[in-house]
Amino acid sequence: MKLGKKWYTSLALTVGMGLMLSACGSGGQPAATGSGDKVYVIGTDAAYPPFQMLEADKISGHDIDVMNAVAEAGGFKVEWKNTGWDPLFDGLDKGTVDIGISSITITEKRKEKYDFSEPYFEANQLILVAEDSPVQTLADLKGKKIGVQAATTGEEVVKKAFGETYEGLKGYDDMPSSVDDFFNGRVDAVVGDNGVLQYYVKKIQNKKFKLIKDDSFEKEFYGIMVKKGNTDAMTKINDGLKKIKENGKLQEIHDKYFGNK
Q1: Which of 25, 133, 165, 225 has the most crowded CB, counting CB atoms within 10 A?
Q2: Global pTM?
Q3: Which domain holds residue 59?
Q4: How far apart are CA 252 and CA 258, in angstroms?
């Protein structure tokens, strides 16, 4: 999933007993509550539907539901901040954010600096091409223009296949821009996370395309992230996550956004 910069700014608002998120100047999202006095600040980048998004100026999505359910089951309070992508990591480093959840792929490189929960979502990359395209694998796109969301694992797999300086690679700030350029003929294909790519293309009407799964793509696992050594928060997170896996709540959230097939 995402690995680098994004452009949303953060703003959080606490109102009475309810902790609310405020983003883009208005709106709010109720926070999960639990026992104890500690309130954990949760950072996310609400620009990656259906995992994190803004709807009517309110933050929502799969990961928001997951984290609120984890907090409720784990017995702790949370306050949401729509930090954007890079500021999420900066916030963890500086201590202004306690927990990050934003479709963050668990990688060995990230584990050097941060601690991750058990996985809560399994993802893989897909390739978007024209319906009549002969492309069957990523390798078939050599020499073609490929759109990706910048600083994501989609960008990584393309660079791994064709080199760090591949001239056909075009990075975008967000997935909708890459998909728009594909349908307008400015790129030949788009590579991106299955959940996000499927979410966008299903909104496209009267367009002919297909999604290809390349078996060479490695599976990815999303985890909830804290600064390395924050064992107190991680213990509570994994406890809550274990409970919602066992009681079916995690599956219920998955089915809400992706169906039960």
Answers
A1: 225
A2: 0.78
A3: 12-122+221-258
A4: 10
Q: How far is CA 166 from CA 5, 133, 196, in A?
A: 20, 21, 24
Say how far residue 39 (Cα) sits from the centre of its chain. 23
How many CA atoms lie within 13 Å of 104's alpha carbon, on the beta-carbon side?
A: 31
The CATH number linked to 232 is 3.40.190.10
pLDDT digits (tens, 9 = 90+) for 72-98: 999 999 999 999 988 999 999 999 999
Q: Do 47 and 144 reside in the same domain of the chain? A: no
Task: Please check whether residue 47 is in contact with residue 59, taking contact to mean a CB–CB distance below 8 angstroms.
Answer: no
Digit-coded pLDDT (tens) for 86-135: 899 999 999 999 999 999 999 999 999 999 999 999 999 999 999 999 99
Please give the backbone phi and psi of residue 132, each rounded to the nearest 5 degrees, phi first.
-95, 10
Going by C-beta distance under 8 Å and a sequence separation of 6 or more, which residues neighbour residue 173? 6, 7, 149, 150
Which helix (H) or strand (E) element contains residue 201? helix 194-201
